[in-house]
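Appendix C reproduces, verbatim, an entry submitted by the partner laboratory led by Prof. M.T., so that reviewers can inspect both the input and the predicted structure.
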Amino acid sequence: MPTRGQVQDQISKEITKFFIKHIGNGPKEIRTYIIDDIVLVRIIDTLGAFSKTLLKSQDPSDIQTIKDIYRKTREYSLDELYEIVERLTGAKVNTSHHDISTRTGERVEVFILDQKYEPPHGSIT
């Protein structure tokens, strides 16, 4: 039976694959935390080369364009993100929230589950 830490690690790995598939590059670092009915994924340095180049202008419209691109990409593939979290936690995702910092390239994904996460019986949390 997988431990909470193993499930967190697997979510991180699957979301890294998701980013490579949909954005073209994976994050420098990714950490997942399961807290009661919340799955928090902290994704560090997820901006691609194109985004970083565009952001050098510091033009507010360019910054908004980058946020819009990442938001749209997420919207189009949200079912896939939900499937990853649901399959690995065994709970349904009720809703999710996200944001990306165009200054640091850090992204946060928050998934709210329909129940408190309980590791499978026999596993160590």
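DSSP finds four helices and four strands in the chain. Additional entries are available on request from the coordinating office.
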